[in-house]
Design goal:
By secondary structure, the protein is an alpha/beta fold. The chain has 15 helices and eight strands. It has two domains: 176 residues, Rossmann fold, CATH 3.40.50; 136 residues, N-(1-d-carboxylethyl)-l-norvaline Dehydrogenase, domain 2, CATH 1.10.1040.
Length: 334
């Protein structure tokens, strides 16, 4: 049975999910920019993202949040992490009280250190809280739109709702698994962007494949350490939203965060790098948020700390690498 779907956010991932859902469902995609919404309606293409993809007639676009959400049983939040609080606070007044909410957002709120599901619970009526589902996993938007085989995880504390979304979104090239560890899935999805910038710097410095593998492995250890401190299941980080997304984002040429690291290693200023990007590289904000959170929790995260120093102009990429390699020797399990 078709489900009325709203996608909030007309970036690349919001657009690819609107395209995916429109196979079986009626979809409304919301853009903050009226010009983008008008272009989608008139040209059946997003003028900024995935422009080569034609959107079917089952996708309608609007810049009116109330119009986008009216009668929608499934709401997908695909806005940048720094916009979640504002957009969803406004959405809460007009969302269907029985709607399931799916967050594809990968980040940590800088000011509060909250994970995205915590931000959502902070602005939504408590009745919505059991129906918040986190979608994460190795999934470049361009490949999803091109119908390349993709697997993701849907996490919800009440797994029944994750199963509902699984049924609505799965198709022969987009396979959804369910999980109940919302914290672990969100931590993995957010922190892999931090490690991807570091790996990009490592590759940009031509430090070698050994260094890349070691950095990714120790990066996964840092992700797990923080996740467990927040209450996650450590096994979650061996799955799609942990190791799977980390591998893709650290090594894939479509990775925005990896690209930031490559350019930093080439000596370009951070402001120039991010200023020239059409899409948000979430790892830049997340690095600062996660370092503050780790310090508050007493969790050691040397890779994240070193990256923060580079982003703040306190260390060069070369110096950050030397700092990691000359730290006090210790057990691998520490």
């Amino acid at each position: 049975m078709p489900t009325p779907v709203a996608v909030l956010g007309a970036g690349s991932f919001g657009t690819c999910l609107a395209l995916l859902a429109a196979r079986e469902h009626e979809v409304t995609i919301w853009s903050r920019d009226p010009e983008v919404a008008r272009a989608i309606e008139s040209e059946r293409r997003n003028p900024r993202y995935l422009r080569e993809i034609e959107l079917p007639p089952t996708v309608r676009a609007t810049s009116d949040l109330g119009d986008a959400l009216e009668g929608r049983e499934l709401v997908i939040c695909a806005v940048p992490s720094h916009g979640v609080r504002d957009v969803m606070a406004k959405a809460s007044a007009v969302m269907d009280p029985e709607a399931i909410l799916v967050s594809t957002v990968k980040g940590i709120e800088v000011d509060t250190g909250m994970l995205v599901h915590q931000v959502l619970e902070d602005v939504l009526d408590p009745a919505f809280h059991p129906r918040v589902v986190a979608l994460s996993g190795p999934s470049f938007a361009r490949e999803v739109a091109a119908q390349k085989p993709t697997t993701v995880t849907l996490a919800c504390r009440v797994e029944t709702y994750a199963i509902s979304v699984q049924t609505a979104l799965s198709c022969p090239w987009f396979r959804c698994y369910t999980h109940d560890d919302v914290i672990g899935v969100e931590v993995g999805g957010s922190l892999k962007n931090v490690i991807a910038i570091a790996v990009g710097m490592c590759d940009g410095l031509e430090s070698g494949l050994n260094a890349r593998a070691g950095l990714m492995t120790r990066g996964l250890r840092e992700i797990t350490r923080l996740g467990v401190a927040l209450g996650a299941n450590p096994l979650t980080f061996l799955g799609l939203s942990g190791m799977g997304d980390l591998i893709l984002t650290c090594t894939g040429d479509l990775s925005r965060n990896r690209r930031v690291g490559l350019e930093l290693a080439r000596g370009r200023p951070l402001a120039e790098i991010v200023g020239g990007m059409l899409q948000v590289a979430e790892g830049v904000r997340t690095t600062h948020a996660v370092c503050s959170l780790a310090e508050r929790l007493g969790v050691e995260m040397p890779i994240a700390r070193g990256l923060r120093a580079v982003l703040d102009g306190e260390l060069t990429p070369e110096a950050a690498g030397r700092m990691l390699m000359t730290r006090q020797l210790r057990s691998e399990t520490d």
